[in-house]
Amino acid sequence: VQLQAFGGGEVQAGGSLRLSCAASGLTFYNYHMAWFRQAPGKDREFVAVIKRSSDTTTYADSVKGRFTISKDNAKNTVYLQMGSLKPEDTAVYYCAAGYPAWGSRTTSAQYRVWGQGTLVTVSS
Fold first, then answer.
1. Are the C-beta atoms of residues 81 and 16 closer than 8 Å to each other?
2. What are 20-60's pLDDT values in tens digits?
3. Looking at the predicted structure, is the pLDDT value of residue 100 above 90?
4. pLDDT band at 106; cut points 50, 70, 90
């Protein structure tokens, strides 16, 4: 079982970036797929999640209206389209797979499988 995230990089404030996370060894359709991030010196925080078996999504308030999570079940891949990036979005971004109760979808401990992380740096 593996998640591989890629697409990070350095971008100027106001710019856009798309992260991808490819899953292997799991039945992708059965998992909620989420993105979390961890900035230097801070705890890991929830960014976005897309519900298994549907396109229902939830976003952290800090990214709502700027980020979009989506998935392609045929490719076993989840995406995070990030726009209007700010320096405070700088972090290592992790994708995660799990099937927590939907009420616990923003809790990192509820996710079973994690990718290796990809660094996003937003310069001012």
1. yes
2. 999 999 888 899 999 999 999 999 999 999 999 888 999 99
3. no
4. very high
Contacts of 65 (CB under 8 A, 6+ apart): none
Distance between CA atoms of 69 and 76, rounded to whole angstroms?
A: 14
> SS in 3 state form for the chain?
CEEEEECCEEEECCCCEEEEEEEECCCHHHCEEEEEEECCCCCCEEEEEECCCCCCEEECCCCCCCEEEEEEHHHCEEEEEECCCCHHHCEEEEEEEECCCHHHCCCHHHCCEECCCEEEEEEC
Cβ neighbours for 57, distance < 8 A, ≥ 6 positions apart: 48, 49, 50, 51, 69
The letter for the amino acid at 71 is: K
- Residue among 28, 51, 49, 63 nearest 95 (CA): 49
Could you identify the residue written with the tokens 């993105």? 35
Q: Output phi, psi for 28, to 5 deg.
A: -50, -45
